[in-house]
Structures are given as C-alpha cells and as structure tokens.
From TrEMBL:
Organism: Calocera viscosa (strain TUFC12733)
Enzyme Commission code: 6.1.1.20
Family statement drawn from the similarity comment of this UniProt entry: Belongs to the class-II aminoacyl-tRNA synthetase family.
The protein, known as: phenylalanine--tRNA ligase
Lineage: Eukaryota, Fungi, Dikarya, Basidiomycota, Agaricomycotina
GO biological process: phenylalanyl-tRNA aminoacylation
One GO MF term attached to the UniProt entry: tRNA binding
Keywords tagged on the record: Aminoacyl-tRNA synthetase, ATP-binding, Ligase, Mitochondrion, Nucleotide-binding, Protein biosynthesis, Transit peptide
Amino acid sequence: SLRTHKRHVHTPRTITVLGETYPTDDYTNLPPTIAALLERRLHVTPPHPLNTIRKLIASHFEGFKSYDNLPAVVTPELNFDSLGFPPDHPGRARGQSYYINRGVMLRTHTSAHEVDIYRETPRSGGWLCTADVYRRDEIDRSHYPAFHQTEGARLVNVADMDKLKAENEELRRGLSASRIIMEDCPDFDAITNPLQASHLPETVLPVAQNLRLRITTLFMSIFPPSTTPLHVRWTPDLFPWTSPSYQLEVRYRDGWLELLGCGIVLDDTIARSSHDPASERSWAFGMGLERIAMPLFGVPDIRLFWSRDERFWKQFRDGELRTFQEFSKYPPSERDVAFWLPVGVAKPHAASHAAGGEGVGWEENDLWDIIREVGGDLVEDVKLIDDFWHEAKGRRSLAVRITFRSMERSLERPEVNEVTDAIKAKLTERLAVEIR
Ligand code: FA5
Ligand code: MG
C-alpha cells in the first residue's frame, strides 16, 4: 500500500526524542521539525511571555500544587483511555496526533496527566499542570501544531457545599462590571450536556459555579485595567471525561477567541485515580496559554511565540506585562500548487474517518506537515483553495495557496520559487500526488 511504501522508504528504524530512542512502526508520523520543538521549554524560560502567564495563573490559585516539567511523551492509554475517549474517537487518528510509534505519542493536551496527578492529590486538594502539547492542526494566526496549556483541577468534598457556596458569594461580589462583561451560560443543558446520573444538582451546581467564578476572577485579575472591560462568553462544550462541560471565549479583534474548555470530571475518571466519586466532586479546566498571551501582550500571531529573533525576546521582562511592538514585516509572496491525488483515493463524501478502510489512505494533515517541513518558518499560511472530483478521471484534485513571508528579510522571487519546487517534489515523492 501507499503507506507501507512511504514508511519503508522514509522512516528510519528508530527515532530519538528528548534523549530517548524508540523503534518506529506503521504509526510513526513525528516529523523532525516538530520533534525539535520539544527542546524549547518556553513555558519555563524567562522572560518568555508564556512563562510569565504560567506564573500569573499559579499566583491566582493559591495552595494548588504545580506540575511544570512533565515530559511530553505519553502513552495513548494516558492521553485517551484514562479519560474515556471511545476507541473510534477521531483525535486518536494518525491524521490528528503525533505518534512516535503505536505505543507512545506526544500528549495532545495536559489532561493526559489528570489521572496520575489526581492520584497523588489529597482529598479537597487542587493542582495545576503547565506543558507544551502537540496536535496535527492547521496553521494560521491562532493555531499552531505545538502550543501550551495550563490544566487546573480542584477536588471538593460533597460535605463542604455550604463552605463552597459562601466562597462563591465572595467571588461573585468581587466581580466588577467595569472590568469584565460576562455573557450568561445556562448551568447545564439537560439533553446534550447533562449532570452525571449519580450527581444531585445541589452537589454539582455549586462546584460548576465555583469553576466558572474562579476562571472569571482569574482573567479579571491578570488583564490590566487598560485592556478591560474584557468581554467573555460561556457556552456548553463536550469532553469525554467531563459533564457538564463549558467553553470560554473572549472578544478579540472583531471575533471570539476560544480560551479554554472545562467541566465537572466524570465519576469514572475520579475513580481511576483512586479518589471516591461518591464523596468527592472535581472541576477541571484546560486553557491555551498562547490564546491568553495574544490579547494580554498584544502578540498578533501565535507563531511569534516560537521566534528566536531577539526583536521578540528583548521586548519582555520576567513576570511583567508589556505591550508587544510589532517589528517591521516584510512583504508576503503567494504561490498556488494544484495536484491530483493518487488514483484510488475515494470521493470526499465517501471517505470514512475509520482507519484501515478500503482504498488508498489520504490524510489531509500529511499535506500540511510536508509543506511546513520543507518551507519551515517561511510558510506563513496555507489555505485549501480548490477541491473537486473529476468524474471522468475518477480522481480528486486539490489546490492550495501558500503564503511565504520571512520575519527576518525580504524574500526574492527565485528563492520562493525554489522552495515551492521543493514542496512540489516532496509532495510527489511522499504522497504520490501528481502536480498539475
Ligand atoms: C482540551 O484540550 C481539553 N483537554 C480541555 C479540558 C481540560 C476540558 C479539563 C475539560 C477538563 P480543547 O481541545 O478545546 O480542550 O483545547 C483547550 C484550549 O487549548 C483551547 O480552548 C485553546 O485555547 C487551546 N488550543 C487548542 N488548539 C490549539 C491550537 N492549535 N493552537 C493554539 N491553541 C490551541
Ligand atoms: Mg475546544
């Protein structure tokens, strides 16, 4: 098959990640460009803004234990199974996550550590975990295949509801309408986002309230008055290990930017960590640090966080909020690349998400990875601009528009052409596409 061929020719027998050597297999899809990012450790490197945000969050959650150095290489059991992801969840696919081999992968979220951390958390304890996470996502101003999350969780004894309600009252009094404008979220949507069967409203709703109030007051305290009022909205969300679940978005540059997902942890997950779901509830959240840093520091593009350019680094001081001054941008160049997918790739609507189906495998994320791998930091944006099925040929054609831009210099036309040609050659070699 196409995939076996690709692996045979291009995947080395072992790969080394963070000093550890692993055998590869038919699941291996971790490109060297992504593996290199594991060494950066931006969230614990002053004066990087992500390190400052990590510390600001930690100072808001007094008494919570912090985990900031857990390695990014985890098992799919921890990343998915411990959280009740169903076996056919799309997030498990090679097309969405980075695998070193079938048994080890890069965490796709800090929730991968929930069960292990809960296990060593005392009753009524709280914890935070900040880390780099990896997903085969699209690239644009607010999405990057590597980013950072802070996970936070708090266990509450069901016997302590009165204390919690009093705390909630206190938190609510501290909310200032001139600092934060909050759109309402229903407490739960009984049909799509219900309370867990074993949970009574009186032992869950105060916990869900506390979750939303702790997060809202966090943002009120870290965003300085000059950036407020901050306009946020809560909407229902879905995660395999929480119910009810919520999402928080913030108004940013004429749109809504998603900051975090959160919810009430399922009894199953609590039980897996050897806590007692009958007497303990827990809320948990996972927030994107770059998504907070963008409005907070005025950083307009998520890729800047990975910059090695001193014009980026020298603008920050450890622990301080500063408004980022954009440095001059060089002009962009666009190139369109159109190609036929290999014979045998199914019609788009006939394609199934399940692995190992009929026909030739085609993962759209392989395309983005190869373009990035060859074009590196010169690739600012890639967009699918055409996707059609040619009935007579029985083949699917795609076209992408690649925007090249350097943060350091003006690109000359021959250089852009050369990179585009190298991308075409790599796509032909690796994905067996036919350039049109
Ligand atoms: C999660 O990752 C859940 N683990 C969060 C969670 C934790 C839910 C605990 C319940 C309990 P989600 O996929 O929505 O959820 O990602 C969380 C946040 O990470 C997003 O809200 C966003 O701020 C950030 N994020 C997600 N994808 C990207 C990306 N490609 N680039 C930058 N930030 C991202
Ligand atoms: Mg989300």
